[in-house]
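Progress report, Aim 2. The chain analyzed during this reporting quarter is listed below.
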Amino acid sequence: MKAHTRLDRNVVAVNVDGTVHLLIELEAPSGQRTARAPIDVIAAIDASGSMSGGKLAAVLAAVAQLGRLLTPVDRLGVVVFDTDVRMVLPLGSHDTEGLTRALGQVTANGYTNLSGGWLMAREHMAEGGRPEALRRIIVLTDGQANQGIKDPDQLVDMVKVGTTGGTPITTSIIGFGEGFNEDLCAAMADSGGGNDYFCGGPDQAPQVFTEEFQGLASVVAQNISVEIRETDEVAATGLLDEYRVDQVEGGLRILVGDAFGDEKRSVIARLVLRRVRHTGPVKVADVVVRWANVVGDLALHSTTIPVVVGVEEGVDPDRIPVDHEVVERVDILNVARVRREAGDLAEQGQTDAALRRLEEAIRIAANRPSLKSTLADIERDRSVIEEGRWTTGHNKRVKGDGRGSSKGRRRNFTDDTWGSDYS
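Predicted structure tokens for the chain:
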């Protein structure tokens, strides 16, 4: 794993409060140098009453497809949860006939015991999972937890437990349809070191499972974390990306999750500097990157990078050279954040406030050619809100787009690019 840091500006004025944006770039090694790690995956499927009919049939077909994608070195298990929880397929190698027969016995009924489904999957993974394998739980739900543990904070902390220890068990969450709690799914995936997806309908379920498997098959590093350890020259640090952040002594720990072969991940933070009363180079932070290799040398690694800014006299803040790539990345994340805020306001019926937020997003996006398609989406957002047609589905799509902008990965699987949503 290669790690680099860049600032949007490398110089600040002496005796002046300042803000700099720190870009941390992570570049994963190639996954083609050695054979990939085997995969142990348990699908935890919501089979509550709301999943009856075409929803459940599509999900079970997608799990069957996942089984066909696995190679002989991989293993699959299936947990089903409604009011109760049951293991319908033990973790192991299964032929197509046996997998189809087991899935054919699943029916929809009862409530959503999400915690029970995850806990049973973790129990079987901890007991039967191989230490040399990538161990992933994939949870699919179309609703909100209304049985077992219901508190969102407890659910988020629950999945985090799986990532601790020498051989992590990571968790990905698939939200299906418009009834799921997208904020909870995102928080659980971040805490569990996995991915989160918005699956717009039954036809998209196979795409989601395929993408998740392809990602697993190309993982080269897991449990990537970035610590930003502030010096006394920093008054406050904030994260612009949508990763889970833990407070640690001296700063923040950002949980990035995993990385695919040759993939580039990035983190952007805002550092609010105190007034520096002397000129010269000043260290404002140390960046500590930690990760676990899952191909080649299976070992834990870390690297530390000092972050230094120059302090000069007579500096005109408006004339300081900037790193335009960092500034553009900041704008992209700010547009995504403002757009999400506008969607939440629209869903709450605060139309005027939502439209004002969208105008702010439009002002930023209009100056960025790279945001041309996003600008078109924002203008469609505005039209739908003005016409009073904004729905929960629109809001989930916008939040998924924001997560994709933040993490650089696809999050939404819908029929087309807004098509039916804007008809």
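Residues 415-423 have pLDDT under 50 and may be disordered. Residues 39-217 form a domain with the Rossmann fold fold (CATH 3.40.50.410). These observations will guide the mutagenesis work planned for the next reporting period.
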